[in-house]
Specification:
The chain has 247 residues and is an alpha+beta fold. It is built from 7 helices and 8 strands. It has helices spanning 2-20, 49-64, 93-104, 107-117, 158-175, 203-213, 217-226, and strands at 36-44, 68-77, 83-90, 121-131, 145-153, 179-188, 193-200, 230-240. The termini are far apart. The relative contact order is 0.18. The model is unreliable at 1-23 (pLDDT under 50). It comes from Myodes glareolus.
Length: 247
């Protein structure tokens, strides 16, 4: 009997250890906070970009009456231009569904903004993300500019690359040249994708900070570790709209 118990303990030990594995990016059933963030990107007709933004500014109160707007930006460079990017916060998926239903029935929103401006949009993209558990939405010290850095990581999920990625982000944060606004892990969209939103005082201060960080041994070591799990990356330089909560 003792021998049998010993064999069972040995057989179950790896399984018990596997249950203890956790990730700083845990989502799905392990996501303790159901709050989600919807990333919406609109590709606009070049001749209508300014008009679209002005129309949204006039009617933004109709939209924010239904759910919280985190930020609204124009893409200055980094990919296709005449593009706007915005982030909306929802308590959970049921909340988002209720908001979408309410918007569809909101005649004032439909007539004053949505219907007249749909023709200005060439294309739309939507991603659903979670804010990673070790990060909260940051508040920039003053008005500035933003960078959205997007990292496509190798398949395997955060259990494979989450800790290394966290160390790389924190290494940049500790230098203090840029303010971390949020780190978001995609739940619907391209999987194994992480978005990091940064605030900078200006494009030039960002450039100087990046140059400085590339010479810091702590950043270099952390990035070298994380890049082993990286497939591709891209970024966008963002200018906040006058009506954006994040300036």
């Amino acid at each position: 009997m003792l021998a049998l118990r010993s064999c069972l303990r040995k057989a179950l030990a790896p399984r018990a250890l596997a249950l203890q594995v956790c990730s700083p990016f845990a989502t799905g059933p392990r996501q303790s906070d159901g709050t989600l963030y919807e990333f919406r990107t609109y590709f606009l007709k070049p001749s209508k970009t300014n008009e679209f933004l002005e129309n949204f500014k006039k009617n933004v109160h109709l939209r924010t009456a239904h759910s919280e707007l985190i930020g609204y930006w124009s893409v200055e460079f980094g990919g296709r231009t005449n593009k706007v990017f915005h982030i909306w916060k929802y308590d959970n998926f049921a909340h988002r569904t209720a908001v979408r239903k309410a918007l569809a029935n909101d005649k004032e929103w439909q007539e004053r903004f949505l219907i007249p401006n749909l023709a200005f949009i060439d294309e739309q993209e939507v991603e659903i993300t979670y804010l990673v558990p070790w990060c909260k939405i940051g508040t920039p010290p003053k008005e500035g500019v933003y960078e959205l850095a997007t990292f496509q990581m190798k398949p395997g999920g955060p259990a494979l690359w989450g800790n290394a990625f966290k160390r790389a982000v924190n290494a940049h944060v500790e230098l203090g040249y840029s303010t971390l606004v949020g780190v978001f892990h995609t739940e619907y969209g391209a999987l194994n994708r992480v978005h990091v939103l940064w605030w900078n005082e200006s494009a030039d201060s960002r450039a100087a900070g990046r140059h400085w960080s590339h010479e810091d041994p702590r950043v270099v070591a952390a990035v070298r570790e994380s890049v082993n799990y990286l497939e591709s990356q891209q970024n966008m330089f963002l200018i906040p709209a006058s009506f954006s909560p994040l300036k």
